[in-house]
Amino acid sequence: MTLYLKWLGVDFGQCIMDPRGLRNPLMFNDIMKELGRPEEIAMRIHRYHRMKEKYLTYSIIKEGHKDEILDFVFDGDEEAMQIFSRKEQEELMVAEGLEEALQYLRSEGIICDVVSELKKTLGPVGTDVITTFLERKGIIKYFDYFYSPQGKLNLGDNSIDFGVKGKDKALGTMYDYLVEDLAKRGIKVGEAAMVGDKLTTDIEQPRKRGFHTIQFTGYIDMGLSEYAEYRVHSFLELKDLIKGVDKQT
What we know:
Layout: E1 3-5, E2 7-10, E3 17-18, H1 26-34, H2 41-55, H3 58-64, H4 66-73, H5 78-91, E4 93-94, H6 98-107, E5 111-115, H7 129-136, E6 145-148, E7 151-154, E8 160-161, H8 173-184, E9 192-196, H9 199-208, E10 212-216, E11 230-232, H10 238-241, E12 242-244
Helix pairs in contact: 1-2, 1-5, 3-4
């Protein structure tokens, strides 16, 4: 079955971002050695693991709880946090096959946007972990906008629309906003799809509002859901699944 689209929204954590690099405790070895405090390595790793137990996935920590990494893991040490932010960008990887899939989607005339959580106040490209990642990995050019509860960032000119501020993926209010915003961009909800790994925030809520849904299982399979129309293990599978609306006969 072919899915004909004008728009695809993509989640960041455990989708665009390959989270496997975040699981490397060597990052904390490097941080504490650079600070001249190697005796703290085990403690910092232990605290980071405790955060993982609390929030379940590293991507959730990265997207919404950077302040807690500073306060809890590093005891408010700003220098340690700066090194952590630098190291994480070195460790993070782009999902395998993502860029090839994005190239294909854009060639089909499909608009691609990032739809993700972000706790930090939104600013210009490069002032948060998500847009910094997109920019450093050379894939920001494939996306038009970044939607988050902090605002809608135009990735081309850095302009910010705060109409989406406070909207939530888990409650579905983010998708209520997207239905209206995409309509203003000439896109019907039936011509739009959301791809993500989390069943509630990425699959159930958008499907209830008429979006097509694609569950990404490349890093973690959250299980089956009646709201997931499609399931893909690799972004390359999107090339066989999706075509632009103009290709529909």
